[in-house]
Amino acid sequence: MPSLTVNATLAGLAITLLVVGKFVVHLISTRWVLRHVPGPRSASLLWGEDWNLYHHSPGSHYLDWHQQFGKVVKFRGACGHQVLSITDERAVAFIVGAEGIYRFPKPDGVRAWFQKTLGEGILWVEGKEAHEKQRRSLAPALTHQSVRNFMSIFYETSGKLAAQWTKLLDNSPSEEVEIEVTNWAGRFALDTVARAAFSYDFNLLSGEPNALAAALDDLTNNENNLSSFYMRSLFLIFPSILSIGKKGEMIRVTKAELGAIARQMWKDAKTTRTDADKTLMEIMCKSPLVNPQPDVHCGGKMHEDEIVSQMRTVLSAGVSFSFMHRSWVLYELATNAPIQEQLRAEISTSPGDPSLDHLNLHYPVLNSVILETLRLHPPILENHHQASETISVPLLDPIPGSSSSQLVIPKGTVLLIPVNVLQTDPEIWGEDAHLFRPERWQNLKGGRNLFAFSDGPRQCIGKRFALNEIKALTATLIRQFSFRCSYDIEAFQSFVIRPRVKGQGGSSLPLLVSRV
Ligand code: HEM
After folding, report:
1. Considering the entire predicted model, what is its pTM?
2. 285 marked among binding-site residues
3. Exposed e or buried b for every residue in 16-29, given b needs 16+ CB within 10 A?
4. Do residues 397 and 71 touch, judged by C-beta distance below 8 A?
């Protein structure tokens, strides 16, 4: 027996040494290949730049570094691992485009996060064939026509939110009430996406507490505490950290709860035949990939677990990626009174709820406000990738001191595309790029694209859904309410970029709301 224990200990030691040895060899060889790439000196031996990145205004270091070192910057993350931050247009287009995207998958840690929280759905899947299969099954549910059909849901949930805010004003002795907008934006997002995806009504807009909504929020709300920092910093190199502690338990519980709802909805969709393709689930159900014979009930090519992961993914992406955008739109309107007035005047020209086409074609102020907010407040700050092999990437501008228009990225290197740097580049957006100026979108001469939804074969498949949902909500709210902000609000790094009252912990956006 003792010899068994000794053998097991020796085997454990050997495995640890092997893993550490591989990590060290990787560090040394990567450092050698990337030695000519400029970047900041590491602030800490253990945490590299992670501590600074986490505790300063989101993205501010990326702005400084790219201004100082150019369009390819090297820095160290935790335990000395090298990270490349890339804004070179040609390199970015290559990495996220058809040629690069499957050779630059998501880093193992990011995939582990999606697998543990959502399952093996489209945000987790890698490899051209497997990804395209999942994407084809979802795409019909998020086309222009499908989103057109969801407009009535968008207006209905927007109306419910407006009714709740009216009730708060009715019950207030004052003509103005302070409303914590991020909480309502989360409720709105979950109710809307669940209605569109499954015809399921969480009824969060009733204002009652809801355990699932709270769990989803907790999962992605970091509040700059130490344990969140360790988790965020280490999961890219040691993905197994996601299974431990309070956060690990939270991840398991939320995944199980979302899964139970998705499974029930899947069962209902299999047994309920409808003539109209109403929900995302029904549309997926009729996809030939899911159902080889469209006239029989669902089943067949996609496994039930895959469908459940997919629905969990849509719910989570539809909420977590997008609900802060709603908050930032209201924040920008509250702090830019003339633009708020302009928008209200534009919306008031239409008596009822404008159709999707009408919204997109005849409301230039609304459209520019939505895009300008996404430009200045991209919910996802960095787009992460990892080289699956050693790859030579084309550059528009050679690295300073070099004449080569190619950058060799060693296998295993983690790289990121800082969205805030791309979207505030003065060369593209002008010297006032840091300012909220929606009118810039009305005089566009082409060539200016947002990167907030990424690009290429893996760009956001819910982009149309997200944009039209926020337009319906903004049009509904601006007609009825006026917004002011009396706090100093700052952005902070969480899963997405959230607002909070300056110096306070959790995410919050208290706005003063009154009737128009
Ligand atoms: C403002 C709102 C949103 C933003 C900024 C956003 C942003 C993004 C980004 C950057 C990606 C690429 C992630 C990557 O692989 O690196 C993505 C992917 C995705 N998004 Fe969105 N998203 C938003 C809303 C939505 C909504 C409302 C839905 C669903 C209804 C959705 C569903 C998805 C899905 C399923 C993917 C995976 C696509 C794939 O891998 O092929 N998103 N989103």
Report:
1. 0.88
2. no
3. eeeeeeebeebbee
4. yes
* Stretch (H or E) spanning 483: strand 481-484
Would you state the structure tokens that stand for residue 122, as one six-digit string? 């489209």
- CB of 461 closer than 6 A to ligand 1? yes
Q: Is 9 exposed, middle or buried (0-12, 13-18, 19+ CB in 10 A)?
A: exposed
Residue nearest ligand 1's atom 15 by CA: 458
> 371: closest CA among 425, 440, 426, 420?
440
* Torsion from C-alpha of 346, 350, 354, 360, nearest 10 degrees: -40
ipTM comes to 0.99
266 pLDDT more than 80: no
CA distance 419 to 454: 9
- How many A from CA of 321 to the centre of ligand 1? 7
- Helix then strand then coil, in percent of the chain rounded to 5, is 55, 10, 35
- Name the nearest CA neighbour of 24 among 235, 237, 236: 237
Cβ atoms within 10 A of the Cβ of 126, count? 13
Better-predicted residue by pLDDT, 498 or 226: 498
Extended strands (E) in 324-477: 382-386, 391-394, 406-409, 414-418
pLDDT of residue 464 exceeding 60: yes
> Distance from the CA of 69 to the center of ligand 1, in angstroms?
30
- The full set of domain ranges for the chain reads 34-515
Residue 295 binned pLDDT confidence (cut-offs 50, 70, 90) = very low
Q: What is the mean pLDDT of residues 181-207?
A: 87
Greater confidence, 309 or 233?
309
Q: Which of 334, 331, 335, 336 has its CA nearest to residue 498?
A: 331
Binding site membership of 185 for ligand 1 (Cβ less than 6 Å): no
Amino acid at 299: G
Give every CB contact of residue 153 below 8 A, 6+ residues apart in sequence: 192, 195, 196
pLDDT band at 297 (very low <50, low <70, confident <90, very high): very low
The CATH code that applies to domain 34-515 is 1.10.630.10
pLDDT for the residue numbered 245:
75
Across the chain, mean pLDDT equals 86
Nearest Cα to 89, choosing from 405, 359, 431, 500? 405
